[in-house]
Structure formats: structure tokens, C-alpha cells
Design goal:
The protein has 417 residues and is of the alpha+beta class. It has helices spanning 3-12, 25-35, 38-43, 63-68, 156-167, 215-221, 262-271, 277-280, 309-318, 374-377, 408-416, and strands at residues 46-49, 53-59, 102-107, 113-120, 146-152, 173-176, 181-187, 231-232, 241-246, 323-331, 347-350, 356-364, 367-373, 384-386, 389-396.
């Protein structure tokens, strides 16, 4: 079993239809790899409680100013009244207007990756139904601005220390609220990449403003005026929906037979070439653009200064990224999938010459993410393999969402032109 998965299973445990269900991890993974991606596409929307993520809260009048000077993305939208409605899944108490979540990163002064965050603004009570479901809630405009963030649970303490180090005299409180709130992801077939209207999601029919009120969903939100709605994942449409919900209840629209373990979401994400957290994106080492954070809407090049901004901007304007993180598939010499034979940290080399092409950063079953030199990774005349494992071949896959200009062929055509 890959080292990364061993750590994940030891730290998180596994979810199933029953959260107290016990099983053999290797057996479950074998079933999942046989089913992915066809199983997820055919099973409809699935949901996972992300135990790899913790929830923190920023609260105070200087919240937006404080984060604007630290993070790679522009967070000023949170200080403005939302225009129109964010891409959300219709749920009971659906606000008339919502601010979309923001994906961002915190960097070292040298421009290396430290932490990633998903920022959410809780809905104001006055734009939600009251507890009876018959009208809007009270107007509490006097409350201080609050933002919630889901962050990598394995680095929670040092992340909090890092933010507090930069706080100085800023009027912002930073709290760990992981006991009260949890992060969930909703993904899979019949959901990702579609509009979020009730007409296109039959499970969301007859709930929210103007429709009947789902009492089960309402109970999940009782006593909570915070961000409990599903919001479109800010990275890619194909990743589905994400949200922060009270820890003592199951989010709306999550059926018991559709709640699945986090590793299945991880596989869904890996197949799309998306890393998450400070383990998959090495803390203090990773160059953000090589891990495709600009393409995943985590970086604004127009917002102005933030910690680590100068080297990121310089690399971006130079316009040449030789290495990128991309999805990998591990197969044997006959082209059959290799389950649990490759570990994170393995070197990817040319099979013929043993020349290094890159490194496996994440491995799960027969899938992985690798930081590879693009010219060698997509050289059709060469075969890639794992160093020291002659029977382990590597297939580099170009994600559908990648722009053409990221590929080496595009650079060659541009140079000729």
C-alpha cells in the first residue's frame, strides 16, 4: 500500500455508508479502482466528509485587508455586497444572493507554497429564510465580518501560528472551529460541470426560496446562521460542489447510500490532475505555477502585492513553465493497471536510458500525480517507467481542462510563428 495512503488511512479512517463501518482498506481500494471513473459517473452525485481538512474562522473589521496582503488571490469581493447569485446547489434556506468561495494559497517570501485555503463568507441571516421557512431572517448588518476557511488538517497548528505571526495590530481574530464545523465535497456523475438550477438537479427540486421546504435539510441548519450551503468548487466545474456544514449533522442533499469515503473523492481529483493540501503540494518547496494553481483560480495577477508575489509574477510573465503536475496511470508491461505498486516519491524515468523525467508526488492505487518535464512526459516515441521497477510503466495524461498554451507543442509553434 502506498505510503501516502497508509498515512491517510491511519490519520482519517475511512467513511462508508455507515461512519462506524469497519473493513479491509486494501479490499475497498481494489473495488474503487475497478469502479473509477465509470462507477462515479453512473452512481450520480456522491458526497464525502473531508477529514483531511479543518475549519478556521477569521472575524473582525480588518479581516479582508489582512488576508488581501497575505494570500495569492483577490479577496476584496468579500467586503462587497454580492452581485447576482453564486453557483450553488439549491438547498433549504438558500440565500437570494451569495458570494462565491475563493481558492487561494499562502506562500513564503521566496514564492514557495505553504498552505492552501478555501474561503467562504457565511450568508447573512436577512437573506435566508427564518426557522419557520415562511420569511427572511433578521437583519444583523451590525455584526463583524466573518470568513471561514477549510485548510489542511495536518498542518493546522502551524498554519494558525503563521497567520497570527502576521496579524500584528490588525483587528482580526483567528479561531479553530473544527469542532463545530466540517468540510464536505459533493462530486461525480450527473452533477459536475452542470448548471446549478433545480431543473438540472432533480434532487434539488422543490427546496429553497419559492419552493417547498425540506424539513430534513432545515434541521441540519437549525440554530446556524453560517455557511451551510453547497457552493461550486472554485477550482474546476468538474470537481463538483464544496461547503462547510455543522459537524453534528449531515448536509442537505446527502443520501445515506451516496455518502462515501474520502479516498474516492481523492481518486476523482487525482484523475483531473488536481493536488490539495501541503502533503500533495510540498510545503516550502513547491512552485505554485508548476502545480497549476493559476489554472485552478488560486492566483490573481492583478491584485497587487502579497507575500511571495514578486517571484510568482516574474515566472508568470516570463511565460515558460517547463515542469507541471499532471495525472499519471501505472500499468505493467502488458498495459494492465498496477494496483498499489508505486509509492509517492518514486522517480519517473525513460525506460530505455533511465534519464529522470520527474517525480511521483501522490500515489493511490493505479493512479497518481507527478511533477514531470512536459517535453519528455508527452514525447510519444519514449516509454516512461518507475526507477528500479522495470515492470512499472507510467502513462502521463493531459487533463481536459488544460489550456493549449501549456503544452510544449504550442511553445514550438509560437516560436516558429
Amino acid at each position: 500500500m502506498p505510503l501516502l495512503l497508509k498515512r491517510s488511512l491511519a490519520f482519517h479512517g475511512i467513511l462508508s455508508n455507515s461512519r462506524n463501518f469497519h473493513f479491509s482498506p486494501s479490499k475497498l481500494l481494489s473495488q474503487q479502482q475497478q469502479q473509477t471513473p465509470q462507477y462515479i459517473d453512473e452512481s450520480g452525485p456522491l458526497a464525502s466528509l473531508l477529514k483531511t481538512r479543518s475549519v478556521i474562522r477569521f472575524r473582525g473589521p480588518d479581516t479582508v485587508k489582512f488576508l488581501q496582503g497575505l494570500l495569492t488571490n483577490d479577496v476584496r469581493r468579500f467586503s462587497e455586497r454580492p452581485e447576482g447569485k453564486a453557483a450553488v446547489l439549491a438547498t433549504p434556506n438558500l440565500p437570494l444572493e451569495s458570494t462565491p468561495p475563493v481558492y487561494a494559497a499562502m506562500l513564503t517570501p521566496q514564492g514557495r507554497f505553504l498552505y492552501d485555503l478555501f474561503l467562504y463568507q457565511p450568508s447573512r441571516p436577512d437573506v435566508k429564510l427564518d426557522r419557520t421557512g415562511s420569511g427572511p431572517g433578521p437583519d444583523l448588518d451590525g455584526d463583524s465580518l466573518s470568513l471561514f476557511a477549510d485548510v489542511d488538517a495536518t498542518v493546522l497548528d502551524e498554519l494558525l501560528d503563521s497567520f497570527k505571526k502576521y496579524r500584528l495590530r490588525s483587528k482580526v481574530d483567528i479561531e479553530n472551529v473544527s469542532e463545530e464545523f466540517s468540510c464536505w465535497q459533493r462530486f461525480g456523475g450527473n452533477l459536475s460541470g452542470k448548471a446549478s438550477s433545480a431543473a438540472e438537479d432533480p434532487e434539488a427540486d422543490a427546496v429553497g426560496w419559492g419552493g417547498g421546504v425540506d424539513q430534513v435539510g432545515i434541521s441540519a441548519a437549525q440554530g446556524n446562521n453560517l455557511g451551510w450551503q453547497w457552493l461550486k468548487d472554485p477550482r474546476l466545474d468538474s470537481l463538483g460542489f464544496r461547503g462547510i456544514f455543522p459537524s453534528n449533522s449531515t448536509p442537505p442533499l446527502v443520501e445515506s447510500d451516496k455518502e462515501t469515503n474520502e479516498e474516492l473523492y481523492m481518486l476523482w481529483r487525482i484523475e483531473r490532475g488536481v493536488a490539495e493540501g501541503s502533503t500533495e503540494i510540498p510545503k516550502g518547496e513547491a512552485i505554485p505555477l508548476e502545480y497549476n494553481l493559476a489554472g485552478l483560480n488560486a492566483i490573481s495577477f492583478d491584485k497587487g502585492c502579497y507575500v511571495g508575489q514578486e517571484p510568482v509574477a516574474r515566472t508568470h510573465h516570463r511565460g515558460v513553465i517547463r515542469k507541471r503536475l499532471l495525472p499519471l496511470k501505472f500499468v505493467d508491461n502488458d498495459g494492465k493497471e498496477l494496483e498499489e505498486k508505486v509509492a509517492a516519491g518514486s522517480e519517473v524515468v525513460y525506460a530505455a536510458s533511465d534519464k529522470k523525467v520527474g517525480t511521483v508526488m501522490t500515489a493511490l492505487g493505479c493512479r497518481g500525480l507527478g511533477l514531470l518535464r512536459l517535453e519528455e512526459a508527452f514525447n510519444q516515441s519514449s516509454v516512461l517507467s518507475i526507477k528500479g521497477q522495470e515492470d512499472a510503466k507510467v502513462k502521463a495524461i493531459r487533463p481536459e481542462w488544460w489550456p493549449a498554451e501549456w503544452l510544449p507543442q504550442h511553445e514550438q509553434h509560437s516560436a516558429v510563428a
